[in-house]
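Weekly structure sync, notes
Attendees: PL (lead), two postdocs, one rotation student
Agenda item 3: pending single-chain targets
PL asked that the sequence for the first pending target be pasted directly into the notes so everyone works from the same version. It is reproduced below exactly as submitted, 833 residues in total.
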Amino acid sequence: MTYLLLAEKPSAAKNFAKALGGMSGSYNGQAYQVQTLYGHMLEFVEPHEMVGDREKKDFQSWEPETMPWDVSQLNWKKQPQKSKNMKTGKVTSKAGAIADVKKAAQNASAIVIATDKDPSGEGQLIGWEVIQAIGWKGPVKRMYFIDESEKELQKGFKGIIDLPSYNKDGEYVKANVRSMWDFLSMQVTRIATTAARAQGYGVVVRQGRLKSVMTKLVADQLALVKAYKKKPYFEVKYKDENGNVFARKFDEDKDNWRFGTKADAEKDQQNYGASKVVQDSKTRKETAPGKLLDLGGLAAILGTRGYKSKEVLATYQKMYDAKIVSYPRTEDKFISTEQFNEMLPLVDQVAGVVGADVSLLTHRKARPTHVKNGGAHGANRPGTVVPKSLDALSSYGLSAKAIYETLAKNFLAMFGENYVYDSIKGHIEKHPTFTTTVSVPIDQGFKAIFDADQETADETGEDDTSVGLGQNGSPIVAEGVNKKPPHPSHKWLEKQLSKYEVGTGATRVSTLSEVTNGKTALLVDARGKLTLTKTGEIAAVLLEGSQIADPAVTEKLFKAMKDAGEFKVKTHDVLDTATTLIKHDKGVFYRNAQSLHKKVGSPDASMALAKAKPKTEGVFKPTGEKVKFNKEWGGHTFTDQEVEKLLNGDTIAIQATNKKTGKTVKVEGSLGQGTFKGHPFWGFQRKSAESYTIANAPFPKSWSGYIFTKEDEKQLRAGEKIKIKAISNKTKKPFDAAITFELKEFKGDKIWGIEPHFTPRKDPTKFTRANAPFKEEFSGYKFTEQEVMDLRAGGKVMVTAKGKKGKSFTCNVSLELKEYNGSKFWGVEAHFG
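Predicted structure, written out during the meeting:
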């Protein structure tokens, strides 16, 4: 019996191999083989590919009039995930990786899902969707582990358990219903974008469930900040010789001793005189360290230091892969007894890295508030690999040092003693309604290491520096002001989302990263302070009164997804909530869009809708179908005669203009159906390169500054290789090249073009110092024949050369086989001192 272990990614597969003794073999008497996945390997097909022929047209249109979709029509078909390299244009598919799993499974008696255990069940979904894709009918098992350390992976392997069928596996069901709901929610973005564009705004308004909640919360808070009007007031208070202030509790409905002017308060002050201070009580109190951080809390703290969510996520993942920090996507705010015992011997070492005072780390017993069993990965904390120093972490990313220092100090705080203080209450003897409560620090305890509550607070609290109550109090006139709403920040948003239990810490960080980056960004994150982009302002207006932006609705949705995983509700019942929400918000978006110009202003140049190309229509004779298509293509407007030929199904030749280069090229094509971003359309379809031969393919007029003659073209079309003198686009220097005319690939597309052929350079290691080619000068100094001979003989030559700034310097040089950027070459090496 051989287990096929599905690791979530290549780095995880390597860790499995290290822990178990190789990519295949036997561990603890059980044969195994490790097979790597690459995260999600499958994705849903386009909506129109999930329905029957009768419904295909409606689902293909993506028009709001056809939304919300009838969920019962969808078969939820998936395909291997595809991705496009934006630089090269090359499209890659994970079909090959899935085929590798299928091949490996032929020798397996059971497949083991050995992916990460996520709060959302994502790891289960990653495994199951591949197992379903390869048509596996055998046993499926599950391996759980806290992290990818050798000890935990070995423990997880020994504890492999059986799984029921996928539709009875709660973790899979929960994750799958979430992915289906999110797929349906794409309609919300389409409707919002269409509503905005109907008003002239050429934007894409991304209205995802968490994105919308974030945007609306920030927009509402910014509105409160904008509407705030400062209203100062004055009142009488008492102050003792230690600086403690005694005040009365104010009831707006009953009391009238707050005044709008200082003069009125000073007049009231005359009714009060000096009086003794009476101490009512003195109580010794203690406060335990705050909770351990999750990724959301950590990123919020680092945001105030200028580190973006995207950077923190990427850097943390690299540090996790190196076992320097713990698993990122955890919901736990505590660690297990086993995790505590594992880290206990490393406490002093971690403290040394972050500069924490070891003498403060005296609480070496597990705190019940921080250490308890029942979690999965445990709270975010330092890993078992302790770096030599903070500087040693720089290679992992800009935020690496800050991540480790914050995470480590937060973790170390639980080894500090409780914060101890005296809580003292008192009043003014002659006027007992004037009271105060002060805290007198006795022992800073963990606060001298790290105070998580203070660090994650959106507003800075007042320092507790009281030395106790004084003996006497004197009346003063104190100025107050109505409280200003806090500006929305990363910390503030994290608290709002946590309050409604919307998303996990890691999910909130990744989503904030999404909405603060790219052309469709909704928010701006400036050192943790959040504001709206222009698109964000549009989104906020549309979201007013919507369900997608209501955190209470999202909170209920998360509960419903959890209930589906526990089989308390059916999957279709959860998906029906998407239909109800989309139907409701569709009307809301279109109504709210009417006020966009008033609330946001007219579209600026960057948002102006692209001018629609002129259309023409007619009957496409080969099929008898009535079609509508653009009358313009590549800067060329079709004549009436060309339109008639296109409708007849004929191929025509036009002169089109390349948008980037401005050059005109001859293009042949005919009328046909194409797709753009998954949407079908009728239009001019360029003749594919493969349909040409070398004899009739479009031929360029020039290449790298060389203009072809008719004889050149004749030879090249005959398949010959010719030599030309071209000019480098970069250096503008002439160079010799041998070229052919070929069908080749460029950015994922096949094209006919010029292919240069250069003589490969001889391997530098095949040369000796005596015959190696090298540049016979160094920093402006030209070697004499004798000096060249000396260098080739292995000697050193003293030269006086000039540096980059023109200053002269003297040094010895030799001729050496060197390496630069992975390439070897013979060159002059300078020797100083």
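Discussion points:
- The longest strand covers residues 275-287.
- Residues 571-593 form the longest helix (23 residues).
Action: rotation student to compare against the earlier draft before next sync.
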